[in-house]
TrEMBL record:
This is Diguanylate cyclase/phosphodiesterase. Residues 24-279 form the EAL domain. It comes from Winogradskya consettensis. Coiled coil: none annotated.
Length: 285
């Protein structure tokens, strides 16, 4: 079944179509309807503390169930949403929804609730004046404690301009956690780690993929854990798919990971059910 095939299953909007303005406009128009008619929902992927295999946090990821086209993946519509500016209202919805869910989990599960809920924020949102003020308002409205929210941004988004950095500092001042997503793949500058108030490095999947082969990517994975430890940042290895990768990463010093080996992204209710189980066997040992 298409759904079990992961990322590659989204074939409806091809990158080629993505380049065409008309198709972009159509995606954006459909997306606008989707926002108003409940075609969008969030799924949540566990971020795991590797040693005990228990849940540390979750990352919220958007899903679109298009009435005609079926599931459309974020890589196929987030770019269009960014270019058309629709990401601003869409992102606001995502942030509100994730914060509301985080509070629901705390009410339902108490200590077993995820410690933090991560929300992806695009460059366009970060450039929007008053973004940090919006984040503060959402926290206020939902009652979510700031330290229970993580904002994920890419290096490229932060590098983008001065206002992005100002907004991040303002968000950080609220007590929200900041994670650099896909770390090592963007317009990286180690200087960014001084100017950007970052707490967590999400080490990109490309460095995890062949970590067992001991090639160049593995060398980078090793360098990045040393860098993280040296700067007292939390490192999260992204896209861990096998036990061998998890073992190799652990030996290098990684303690947090996310990936299909542990769990796929799942609806909030599924995560609640898993976390309510007496044994709480969230992920493989
Ligand atoms: P990301 O933030 O780096 O999210 C991780 C992506 O890797 C997710 O894809 C997740 O499903 C996938 N993944 C997790 N573990 C594995 C694994 O072991 N193997 C493989 N092959 N993939 C894994 P997804 O959900 O398709 O999202 C793709 C990207 O779209 C995200 O990358 C993020 O950049 C963007 N995105 C997703 N949701 C949102 C959102 O709510 N807002 C914004 N602005 N961007 C979003
Ligand atoms: Mg992310
Ligand atoms: Mg990532
Ligand atoms: Mg990624």
């Amino acid at each position: 079944e298409a759904k079990s095939q992961g990322r590659g299953r989204y074939v409806v909007y091809t990158p080629d179509m993505d380049r065409h303005g008309a198709e972009q406009a159509r995606i954006a128009a459909d997306l606008r309807v989707a926002m108003d008619t409940g075609q969008l929902h969030l799924v949540y992927q566990p971020i795991v503390a590797m040693a005990g295999g228990h849940l540390y946090g979750v990352e919220a990821l958007i899903r679109w169930n298009h009435p005609q086209r079926g599931p459309v993946g974020p890589v196929d519509f987030i770019p269009a949403a960014e270019r058309t500016g629709l990401i601003v209202p869409l992102g606001a919805w995502i942030l509100g929804e994730a914060c509301r869910q985080a509070v629901r989990w705390q009410q339902e599960l108490g200590d077993r609730a995820p410690h933090t809920v991560s929300v992806n924020v695009s460059a366009r949102q970060l450039r929007e004046a008053g973004f940090a003020t919006d984040v503060a308002a959402v926290l206020q409205q939902t009652g979510l404690a700031p330290d229970r929210l993580t904002i994920e941004v890419t290096e490229t988004a932060v590098f983008d301009g001065g206002t992005a950095l100002n907004e991040l500092h303002a968000i950080k001042a609220l007590g929200v956690t900041i994670a650099l997503d896909d770390f090592g793949t963007g317009h990286s500058s180690l200087g960014l780690l001084r100017t950007c108030p970052v707490d967590t490095l999400k080490v990109d999947k490309s460095f995890v993929d062949d970590v067992t082969q001991g090639g160049q990517q593995a060398v980078v994975a090793e360098a990045l854990i040393h860098l993280s430890n040296g700067l007292s940042l939390r490192a999260v290895a992204e896209g861990v798919e096998t036990a061998e990768q998890a073992d190799a990463l652990y030996r290098l010093g990684y303690r947090y990971a996310q990936g299909y080996f542990y769990d796929r992204p799942m609806p909030a209710a599924d995560l609640s059910a898993r976390l309510s189980e007496p044994e709480m066997r969230l992920s493989r040992p």
